Amino acid sequence: MNTFDTHTTIISNEKVAEDHYLLRCECSDIAKFARPGQFIHVMISQGAGLLLRRPFTIYTVNGREITMLYQIIGEGTKQLSKMRREASIQVLGPLGNTFDIAKNPEPAILVGGGAGIASLMLLAVALRAQDTPTIGLIGAQHQDRLLSVDDLEEIGVKVHIATDDGSVGHHGFVTDILTDLLHKNDLHQPTIYACGPHGMLAAVAKITEKFEVPTQVAMENRMGCAMGVCLGCVCPVYIDDKRIEYQRVCTEGPVFNASDIAWEIS
Amino acid sequence: MNTQNNSLNVNIGGIRMRNPVMTASGTFGYGSEYADFVDLNRLGAVVVKGVTSVPWSGNPMNRIMETPSGMLNAIGLQNVGVDGFIAEKLPYLQDFDVPVIVNVCGKTVEEYLTVVKKLTVAEGVAGIELNISCPNLDCGGMSFGVNAKLAHELVKEVRTKTQLPLLVKLSPNVTDITVIARAIEEAGADALSAINTLLGMAINAETREPELANITGGLSGPAIKPVALRLVWEVYKSVSIPIVGMGGIMTGTDAVEFFIAGASAVAVGTANFVNPQASLEVVDGIYTYLENADMKSIKELVGSLKIDV
Fold first, then answer.
1. Interface test with A, best of B274, B279, B280, B281 (most A CBs within 10 A)
2. Which of A234, A239, A261, A263 to mutate to test binding with chain B, by most B CBs within 10 Å of its CB?
3. Using a CB-CB distance cutoff of 8 angstroms, which residues of chain B are in contact with residue A228?
4. Does B139 score more than 70 pLDDT?
5. pLDDT of residue A176
6. Containing structural domain, residue B13
7. What rounded mean pLDDT belongs to chain B?
8. 3-state SS, residue A137
9. How far is B56 from chain A (nearest CA, A)?
10. Could you give the ipTM of this predicted complex?
11. Are A199 and B48 spatial neighbours (Cβ–Cβ below 8 Å)?
């Protein structure tokens, strides 16, 4: 295994949208081995009663540096957002499995809801590096919470936007755009890659099952160890037609085939 | 650091260990998961995830929740079952020079006995830790650990089926832990593990829902250390078999406090989740403490609490 626990310091930690921050740090070993879909487990502070690390997807890799794009959702991420340059953090990773892009999708369709788009950025880079035509469907509550549009467009991803309040792009859900896209039926060999709120993923899975389009989803869950030990982060996965087993998001995942997840009980 | 130094050697109920630091069951998987971070040969013993007579699928999610300085879990003992453990997990551990202690759980006496018999004839098991204190099972588990009579009967039955060193893990969720501890000692246990998690719960005020699907779960981490120390101290005063102390140990100093309270060995649990190398850092911390205190053996520290009376 190539997993490292790196003491490092923050290079920058900037607000990029309402409640969302982009953190840069140097983690050369993690940067070297990081693959699309993988994540890091970050110790923010052992003071103030925060015991556990927090899992974050790896947003980008630049030489010896990695970035993470994260949303403030609790006390840990709130504390993290207040940390400045030079503050120290401990970063464990890279962890988890990766997206599969071997089958030359045409096009690849990325579906990201909220901070979920962060899990698809390294993937987008890898897809574009092999010249895969790539479409990005980005959903946000409203304009001020929209993420990653420029980053994706810069590498040649064709971006469509949906917002809950219609402040920018389609007024509604990304899944509406996805349905329209698949209805047009002019796609050669599409593959869907999705990450976002659980409800969105379940909806994506339902749509793509109907259109029989292969779909990979990056799941999220509360995590304890992120190393496969505590069994805290499981999700229910069909291991055959009838039998379901709880698999670890940190180890068997975070990427699963959407058709393998038992959405009805997850 | 020189952990070969014999000042740290201990013998827990017949299991000889190079140092008194074990991994707590359920926090170290089956030993292979932390291979990148922990040389198992530097540990006193590896205590693996609880095994049962057949594979268990575990509880639905959410299974864990962070709480102030601690965490709640209700995993529900998801495990590969004793046959799967012996066939798939045990061989890996046999490549190391470290005692392997297998945590055993069940819903009935028969289930415990099935597992114990199979482990007793398996190659490479140094000891058994009987888990009669898992708070996350509908029946069995903790119900044995909160009733002195049931605990006594179970341990006595198990004792007749195995000559392996037998540890019994105590539940803190009782009125008087010493009554149970004595009943278990009388039934023939070789050592006691104290403590398992404290039964607790967390509620989301906004949704009014429990944070865990199981509603209640076991609290671990530094939040429970004071409770664990108190219970180790109480048990130490009431039995003569060795105690493996655990509950919120994050550092060598935490471990030293458990020895002073009466533990002969310690187990590192939740700390492994936070820092994969926590167990080794605890070993180093204890060693440094002994050196600074000019003690020749960890045994000098056991039960050395200074009280003015």
1. B274
2. A234
3. 29, 33
4. no
5. 97
6. 6-59+76-198+219-300
7. 94
8. strand
9. 10
10. 0.93
11. no
CB B208 within 8 A of CB B179: no
Cross-chain Cβ contact A51/B222 below 8 Å: yes
Query: Residues 6 or more apart from A45 whose CB is under 8 A from it?
Result: A79
pLDDT at B127: 98
Q: Are residues A118 and A68 in the same domain?
A: no
**Structural domain boundaries, residue A145:** 102-212
- Where a domain ends, among A94, A124, A147? A94
Torsion from C-alpha of B262, B267, B273, B279, nearest 10 degrees: 100
Burial of A130 (0-12, 13-18, 19+ CB in 10 A): exposed
Mean pLDDT by 10 residues, chain A (266 residues): 92 98 97 98 83 97 98 94 95 98 92 97 97 97 97 97 97 97 89 97 97 97 97 96 95 98 91
Contact B63 A266 (CB under 8 A): no
Backbone angles phi, psi at A94, to 5 degrees: -75, 145
Confidence of residue B212 (pLDDT cuts 50, 70, 90): very high
The tokens describing A100, both together, are 């599969």
Q: Report how many domains make up chain B.
A: 1
Residue B134 is a catalytic residue? yes
Burial class (CB in 10 A: 0-12, 13-18, 19+), A184: exposed
